[in-house]
Amino acid sequence: MSKRAIVVGGSGQIGGWLLRTLAEQGHEAVGTYNTVAFPDLVPLDGANLDASARWIADQKPDVVYYPAGFTWVDGCERDPARARSANLEQPLNLARAAADLGSKFVYFSTDYVFDGAAGPYAEDSPTNALSVYGQSKLDAEGALRDALGDRVLIVRTSWVYGPERQGKNFSYQLAKALSAGKTLECPSDQISSPSYGPDVALAVVSLVELGQSGLIHVAGPEVMDRVEFARGIAKGFGLDPGLIVGKTTDELGQVVPRPLNGGLSTPRLDAILPGIMRPVAESMSDFLVKLSTVEGLAYPLPPGDLLADAMPLEPRIL
Description:
Helix 2 packs parallel to helix 4. This protein has helices at 13-24, 49-59, 73-78, 80-100, 132-148, 170-179, 197-209, 226-237, 267-272, 280-293; strands at residues 4-8, 28-33, 41-43, 63-66, 104-110, 152-157, 160-161, 184-187, 191-192, 195-196, 214-217, 224-225, 244-247. The strands form 4 sheets. A 7-stranded parallel β-sheet has the order 3-2-1-4-5-6-11, with helices on both faces. It has a two-stranded parallel sheet with strand order 7-10. It is built from 10 helices and 13 strands. Helix 5 links the parallel strand 5 (104-110) and strand 6. The chain has a domain at 4-167 and 195-220 and 265-278: NAD(P)-binding Rossmann-like Domain (Rossmann fold), CATH 3.40.50. The chain is α/β, with parallel strands linked by helices.
């Protein structure tokens, strides 16, 4: 059954793929932006709590997706008030507005709710956030559960990468550096689950269609360190993985604590939608295809590189 959906943060990488996936699945979807405008999106300032709640009420959505937020770990540490506003107060305000309509709310969280002492973590693993960013997300999870009960779906994901309109994520930074012959330093002691953005979006939309609620981890099937992840992306782009240099978190000067031995296991997702998340090597083939076939995506490589041989793939629609 077709649903009317709102995607708050439609200019981001997950938000953009949510909008595309919802359209492909036959749903009516409206995306919003706050700071980065695209022609198909409408402005929404979540910090204006009354106005944004009224806008949600006027839209009368069946489901509200919230992939927005303040995700810069160091920035959150420097400005905890902004982190709490963007990651907790604003989504909770919109979630309550959605609940008043009987709508579902989908919140995107992170593996930074864990301390990284013994990953990968399942949904029932004890949480222990090390940073302001992780704590703001963890507090939001609890507040949303208390406020909405079974009308909220909380999705934890990690290390999201893939094609996007803004061209900001790690895979773009890597491609731009390596294609220019520059080395790229990566933390060799940070371990997590790389998650391909288009797969995250398809999995989450599918979970909503199936009526799922509660807490579900949506992450890639592999657990690896950042250097291995970076070299997998480099190989996918046909770039030199030897330009990737591993250094420890301390050597890189990342002062804010990260969950080093992290990552997410996905028992709930695997039971409901087995095989929906692809490993890095397989996803890179799709990454190249999407760059050559989907309009509006940022291009991470010099013009003409690599994409001539990319062949269109069948869309992964469940």
